[in-house]
Amino acid sequence: MNEDDSPFIEINYEDKEYYHIYFNNNKKEEIKRKRYYLNEDDNVSKINVVIDYQVKSLSDLFARCYCIESINFKKFYRNNITSMRYMFSYCSSLKEIKFTYFNTNNVTNMFMMFVGCSSLKELNLTKFNTENVTDMIGMFRKCSSLKKLNLSNFNTNNVTNMSTMFSECSSLNELNLNNFNTENVTDMSYMFNKCSSIKELNLNNFNTNNVTNMHYMFRGCSSLKELNLNSNFNTNNKANMYMMFIGCLDELKLKIKGKYENFKDEAF
Known about the structure:
Blueprint: E1 19-23, E2 46-51, E3 70-76, E4 96-98, E5 122-124, E6 148-150, E7 200-202, E8 226-229, E9 253-256, E10 259-261
Parallel strand pairs: 1-2, 2-3, 3-4, 5-6, 7-8, 8-9
Antiparallel strand pairs: 9-10
């Protein structure tokens, strides 16, 4: 990230409960104290965020801010932001994110965006516009407490990589992906790895004709009893499916185009 594109932090000492983070590169000379990161010594638990129009990247913004418990996006002005890579990564104490004012219209990269947010129990991303996103690798990886995840408005038309997207979301017991378009995806390896609480997955709309890697895709889905696929879920090339169902139940039922089939043993 170039310095000209980087966010900076202003500490508001009048409001003791919150940090106020402002992004406005035009006014750098007016800020007496600025930094490009938070650290544990700050001991801040709640943050209000105002995003101004000069910022182009929010990559790594809160990465490894272990002390943060709540983030509230209060204002979001003009939006040139294209990357949210690692934005909340390993915020292990984070319990709440308010996306009331949040704009993802131009974002192309959400790589590992929430990875390691192990205290988050619920995420409602219905206001996310993901039509330009191409990279969702590990987006929710290691969100081990996550029980509710609303992706009902996700547009995945341009996504090419979903590897490890939900990997190790061990508390997630249901996941609605009915709106996902996977026609351009090439990598789904480890996508649901160790999603050990999910009992049923409906991937009836998944198209895997362009996927070349489904290795370990459902590895460790130890509660999965039924998997609903369709004829566009291409299982012809077993070389792309190494250990795809390792650690799954022996009685796992694979339903393809309304009929139960068994290719599980061949993908161990």
